Each structure stands twice: as structure tokens, then as C-alpha cells.
Amino acid sequence: MDAQFAEALLSPLVLGLLGLCIGSFLNVVIHRLPLMMDRDWKVESAELLGVEIDTPAPITLSTPRSRCPSCAHPIGWQENIPVVSYIALRGRCSACKTPIPMRYPAIELLTAVLFAVCGWHFGPHPATLLWCGLSATLVALAFIDLDTQFLPDDLTLPLMWAGIVSSALGWTPVPLAASVGGAVAGYLSLWFVFHAYRLIRSKEGMGAGDFKLLAALGAWMGWALIPSIILLSSAVGALVGIGLIMLRSHDKDVPIPFGPYLAGGGIAALFFGEQLTHLWLPPI
């Protein structure tokens, strides 16, 4: 009975529903975490310089209560049900009728799909929750980078250490040596690219957050998948960048965040890792 209960609890359907709820929380993280970090930087900088500033109001992931950015209408629980509330409200604030960005239910649905696919791919095992957590963190990082061109250490570094610890405790099939090697290989590979580009072009081509994100992916998936993740991320990033420039919707001098492509490459490697590895490292 316990096994049947666990199987039902970790089924794709239940995990998909959990993903909807987690996706709703990710919307809060994506919006508020950069604001929280920006406030902390301003306060710390003012203290170091010994100057007074108008300190922004404190903000956390739970306070203040969510409100409509247009009319400050408090969002009640019945207006915060993932996807359902968006449909019921017809995509508009119940008070001022300002359109609610489609991005919010899209992130909820994306997270739900990733959780359900994790349940289908990895089966009803407790470790499946770890892969769900990895997927959720990658979604948050991708959208934060899209918004701010910044990958916060508050997410990338704990993600890396979680991968190494999970490997050390045997919670994932990745051996500890491969996990540590993946973290090192992931970081150093983009570190060398960064310095080579700066040496050739005399400007920076990416941020240090990209190094740390690839290190985190290497910690979760092992060193063997690093080339596949880099190739996938670079190919998609190049195609999107060229397309945006050709359509004249993006200034070629404005950097395009690489984090979303790394996150996408990591998710592809999560589900198709063995096949991707065999493309460049045939089995013996």
C-alpha cells in the first residue's frame, strides 16, 4: 500500500499539479529576488561609503502581500490560483482591468509540464523530486536573466552544491567524481571562453553568472554532458541572436543573455543526456 501511495503521489499528474503551484511561486521569485538583491546592494554600498540614501522599503518573497502594480489592489487567494484565476479573470486585474501579462500563466504551465515530464521520465522515485527542483530553479534563473541580464549567486551556487551533495549521498546516479569534475569543467570552460573573447575583442562577452550556472549543471549531470550543453546552448543562442538582428528587433551592440540558453540546454540534457553524449562520445 505504501508503494502504491508513493507511486500515486509521484505520478506525472500529481507532479504536474505540484508544478503549477511551484510555477506560481517562481513568478514571485523571478520578480522579487532581483529587487531584494538590488536593495541590499544599495544599503551595503551606502554603509561602505558612509552616505545616507533613501532606503527602499524592505521586501521579501512573502512580504509585502502581492498587489496589482497598476492600482495596488491586494491579490486574494481566489485570484492567485495557478492558471485558473488567470482564465477566470480573463487576463485582467479584477479592480482596474489592467491586462495581466501572459507570462505568469506561461511560467506556471511550463513548470507543470517539466514536473510531469520528470515524473514520466524518472518514474515514481523520491529522487524525481530532486530533478523537479533542478528544473524549477532553471526556469527561475532563465527568466531572471531575461529580465535583468544577471544570474544571482543566491540561486546558482546553492544549485551547484545541491548537485554535488546529492551525488555524494547517492541520491542521483552521477558519481561524485563526475559531479565534482562536471562543476569544475563547467566553470572553467566558459571562464576560458570569457577571457579569450576579452583578449581578442577587448570587451566582455558574458558574465560570471554563466560560469556558475554551467558549473551547477555539470554538478548535477557530470562532466560528460558539458560539451553537449554548451553546443546546444551556443547553437540556439546564435540562431536566436542572428534572427533578432535580421528582423531589426534587437541592437547588435546590446548583449543577449546566455543564461536562458544554458538553462534550455541543461533541461535537454536532463531528459536526453545519454543520447546527446553518444553524439560526440560513442559508447565503447
Task: Provide an overview of this structure.
With 284 residues, this protein is mainly alpha-helical. It contains ten helices and no strands. It has helices at residues 2-9, 12-49, 84-88, 103-122, 127-148, 153-168, 176-201, 208-221, 226-246, 259-280. Helix 4 (103-122) runs antiparallel to helix 5, helix 5 (127-148) packs antiparallel against helix 6 (153-168) and helix 6 (153-168) runs antiparallel to helix 7 (176-201). It is globular and about 60 Å long.
Number of separate domains: 2
**H and E string:** HHHHHHHHHH
User: What proportion of the residues form beta strands (DSSP E)?
Assistant: under 5%
Largest sheet: none
Q: What helical percentage do the residues reach?
A: 55-70%
Supply database-style keywords.
single chain, 284 residues, globular
